[in-house]
Amino acid sequence: MKKLAIIFSLSLMASPVVKAQTSITPDVLKTIQSAQSNTAADRALRNAISSTSINKIALDMQHSSAATDTYFSLETKNTGISDQQSSGRCWLFTGLNVLRHNAMKKLGTSNFFFSQIYCFFYDQLEKSNLFLQGIIDTRKQSIDDQTVRWLFQNPLSDGGTYTGVADLVSKYGVVPQDVMAETYVSNSTSEFNSHLKRKLREFGIQLREKAEKGANEKQLQADKVEMLKTVYHMLTLAYGEPVKTFTWAPKDASGKQIGEAKTYTPLEFYKEISDGTDLNADYVMLMNDPSREYNKVYEIEYDRHLYDGHNWLYLNLDIEEIKPLCIASIKDSVQMYFSCDVGKQMNRNTGLLDVHNYDYDSLFGTTFGMNKKQRIQSFDSGSSHAMTLMAVDLDSNERPTKWKVENSWGASNGFAGHLIMTDEWFNEYMFRVVVNKKYLSESQKALLKQKPVKLPAWDPMFQVEE
């Protein structure tokens, strides 16, 4: 035993002692710097990167020089390109674009758009109420409580999800675009939103202070209504007051009126063009999130637009289970609400989304090797933009090779207002799609009956689409 101890001690003395490092000391900095090279290629790259867009330098010219294949074996009819301009309302444009496809059939016109600003006005009013009521509901919790902190950090935004569209149009209806037109503020929302958020935070603090002084919930809710009067007034200054009734008739492509004009309320108009479709009950949001267990239903707390609305609820499925449902919908000429991480590997000039568009590995001399699960867990990737899924190209084995979406960035953006994504890109950066439940298998429908797993508002998947 004594001999073994001596041998062990000698072996420790012979081994280099590695000192743990918690900060960058001069020695550590010297070690890091010694690994840097200063070749002619490095100097050229340094000059290029410091003065030019990284995407321009990283663009794989051998790959991008090939013409983008714009043929699709299955494609729904394009109904016109909208433009959200400098606003975060892609979720609303997308939802209304999906509705527009069916509305045009019902109205017998090829020239029709919904008013986005009409729905957006009520979206901002409802989100204000959601925040203020959330402050009342959490009034007994510490100001440092994570939920309270999240509420004050996120009192309101112009982004959203499909559930917001479904709840808003079901409660407030819709109107044609020429009944309530866009304003400068609706097309460029950030400046006005900063003032509205500041006012909401002020109101939130006031509600908490009143609660601390003994105000009960009924008194606080009465105060909230008074606060919402101010919010409503601010919204009317920015967006105009929503119409309550309107007289309107559809027009053809030349602008000539088709048939007699009718007088509607916004809700009556929605009921006429929707044919009784229930956007909540008849549809389901499907998610591909490999960081969560598949075949489970998830619900994200406070991820709704209306206090009396629906939290964002979704069924998490393997990507290969989602694709056949999308194909079935396109075959049926039904467009879909679709969202993805649009900023990754996007060539804005051609409108192509392809994982091989940019060679960042060669540019920086390293690899970017996280998979989809790891990107979600580390907040590196998430759903950031909603569009309308409208086409797929299938090979001889009925397997998808590429997909096409109608975007809301104007007709001059991308491929005539559209984006084309390879199936490989679809696998990596597609997150959400909303389909009619009739396309689901019986086993998939059965999954919807399970009790949802409740996730907090700050979950990595809570990213509003802009």
Question: What topology emerges from the helices and strands here?
Answer:
Elements lengths: L1 H13 L11 H9 L5 H12 L2 H5 L2 H4 L9 E2 L14 H18 L8 H22 L8 H8 L8 H11 L11 H4 L2 H23 L4 H23 L6 E3 L13 E3 L1 H9 L8 E5 L8 E5 L11 E5 L2 H13 L4 E5 L5 E2 L4 E2 L6 H5 L7 H6 L7 E10 L5 E7 L11 E5 H7 E7 L5 H6 L5 E3 L11
Parallel strand pairs: 4-6, 5-14, 9-12
Antiparallel strand pairs: 1-10, 2-3, 4-13, 5-6, 7-10, 7-13, 8-9, 10-11, 11-12
Helix pairs in contact: 6-9, 7-11, 7-12, 11-12
In words, what does this structure look like?
It is a single chain. This protein has 466 residues and is α+β, with helices and mostly antiparallel strands. The chain folds into two domains: 55-84 and 282-466, Cathepsin B, Chain A, CATH 3.90.70; 109-275, Cysteine proteinases (Cathepsin B, Chain A). Helices cover 42% and strands 14% of the residues. The protein contains 18 helices and 14 strands. It has helices at residues 2-14, 26-34, 40-51, 54-58, 61-64, 90-107, 116-137, 146-153, 162-172, 184-187, 190-212, 217-239, 266-274, 319-331, 360-364, 372-377, 423-429, 442-447, and strands at 74-75, 246-248, 262-264, 283-287, 296-300, 312-316, 336-340, 346-347, 352-353, 385-394, 400-406, 418-422, 430-436, 453-455. The strands form two sheets. Strands 1, 4, 5, 6, 7, 8, 9, 10, 11, 12, 13 and 14 form a twelve-stranded mixed sheet that branches. It has a two-stranded antiparallel ribbon with strand order 2-3. The N and C termini lie far apart (70 Å).
